[in-house]
Amino acid sequence: MPPTRTLQIDPRLSVVWRSPDCMQIGVDQPAAVLYGLSALEERLVSALLIGVTGPGLAMLAVEAGGEEHTAWSLVERIRPALRTQTARTVSGANVAVIGESLTARRIRHELGTAGIEARPALAHGATASEHPDLVVLVDHFVPDPDEHARWLRRDVPHLPVVLGDLGATVGPLVEPGRGPCLHCVQRHRADVDPLWATIAAQLWGRRSPTETPGFAAELAAITARAVLRRLQDGASEAAASVTIDADSGERVSRRWEQHPECGCASLPEIGSAPASRARPIRSAAAMTAPTTGAAIAAPA
Asked: Lower CB count within 10 Å: N or C terminus of the chain?
């Protein structure tokens, strides 16, 4: 065990007494049950609730009239209840949330309560050197290809939240250089429905009728959980999305693969541009595609 590592009982876990000398840590799924707890050990547990280094805990045991091995023995008994050291602190993390819709505002609020600086990103075409830790893209019906390309070029992980006419889809989280990008998702949709490009172009700029205060709050909670998981320990469902029905709350998960015709599949490493741009999807909708970018555009 590293001598300077801070040991702390996971603050999420409740500490309760089963009897005068038996302490339980955790309620839903007890992480540790300490039978025959002595007054010295109780004092050491109090220190662990606050956080203390291993040597500091051993010193506290000696100063209280005990021995160092009492401290180390207690640490082993409660190890499952200790805060994992792989988790990184998210306080002060910088997350950009694209959009000014009700859902985007709720997501910023949810992240802010977790100590994350969540703010709107600069507008389309901005050249500022901002480099957030992660970006959340909130759109209606189709993801904004310009924003996707913007963060893909900067190697910034980005999570789409797309509201539709019956619900919304969160994900997949795009890790530039690893796994599918949002263009891959659009290409997969076009494989299933060859006229998806035509449909997507018509949906550009429309507002989803499902964006109610209650559903926005639900989406914010789901999104914030995904962001926190990614920021804390680097873990994420990078190639997965979840679609939530606005009425029933039913969730359907799906995993995505890179599309063979997408340029991102040829990225040799993170930060490198594809050797050649993937062949864009052509359709009659190109005549009415939005001026800010085609509804299905290849990654830049």
From this structure: N
